[in-house]
């Protein structure tokens, strides 16, 4: 997401480890992309060469799902459990609940981070609009002062006696 800069747009490229273009967005202000991955190094690039004069502030988040979660790691706890099937079932339910809460909490953190980025972008736009309104208000005030001074001068000149008085 582009937070600040002229036009609030940027080009985005995502390349696979084989060098294939997976995603190419031209002049977008924000976007969400989901990609099925394979082993290797991916390359992504935010390109602002079309706008060489203005710089951009970019927010991006890389979310890797199922990283480091092996089925083996989740099943290791079972070898320490002794007892009846009822106890085993309850522990599985607890583990499932904990994993569900963990996933939801992670999603909440991700959404809050995204909302903070939207807020930052909107604040930058509001500050820019505030500065623009103040500038044009000052220009308007200056024009009004000049016009009122000219009107007073013109009105005063209408009532001046232009005849030469002889005494």
Automatic annotation (TrEMBL):
InterPro entries for the chain: Emp24-like (IPR015720), GOLD_dom (IPR009038), GOLD_dom_sf (IPR036598)
Record-annotated membrane-spanning stretches: 135-155
Gene Ontology CC: endoplasmic reticulum membrane; endoplasmic reticulum-Golgi intermediate compartment membrane; Golgi apparatus
Main location: endoplasmic reticulum
Membrane topology: Single-pass type I membrane protein
Gene3D superfamilies: GOLD domain (2.60.120.680)
Pfam families (UniProt xref): EMP24_GP25L
Keywords (A to Z) from UniProt: Endoplasmic reticulum, Membrane, Signal, Transmembrane, Transmembrane helix
PROSITE patterns noted in UniProt: GOLD
Protein's UniProt keywords contain Membrane: yes
Subcellular location: Endoplasmic reticulum membrane; Endoplasmic reticulum-Golgi intermediate compartment membrane; Golgi apparatus, cis-Golgi network membrane; Membrane
The organism's place on the tree of life at top rank: Eukaryota
Coiled coil: none
Record-annotated GOLD domain positions: 1-64
PANTHER family found in the cross-reference section: TRANSMEMBRANE EMP24 DOMAIN-CONTAINING PROTEIN
Family, similarity comment: Belongs to the EMP24/GP25L family.
Protein name stated in the entry: TMED5 protein
Organism per entry: Baryphthengus martii (Rufous motmot)
Originating gene: Tmed5
């Amino acid at each position: 997401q582009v937070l600040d800069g002229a036009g609030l747009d940027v080009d985005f490229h995502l390349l696979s480890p084989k060098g294939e273009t997976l995603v190419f967005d031209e002049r977008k202000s924000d976007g969400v992309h989901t990609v099925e991955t394979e082993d290797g190094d991916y390359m992504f690039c935010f390109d602002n060469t079309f706008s060489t004069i203005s710089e951009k502030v970019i927010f991006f988040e890389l979310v890797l799902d199922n990283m480091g979660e092996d089925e083996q790691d989740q099943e290791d706890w079972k070898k320490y459990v002794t007892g009846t099937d009822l106890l085993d079932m309850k522990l599985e339910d607890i583990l499932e609940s904990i994993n569900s809460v963990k996933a939801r909490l992670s999603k909440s953190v991700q959404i809050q981070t995204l909302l903070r980025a939207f807020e930052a972008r909107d604040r930058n736009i509001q500050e820019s609009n505030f500065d623009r309104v103040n500038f044009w208000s000052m220009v308007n005030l200056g024009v009004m002062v000049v016009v009122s001074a000219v009107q007073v001068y013109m009105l005063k000149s209408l009532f001046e006696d232009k005849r030469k008085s002889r005494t």
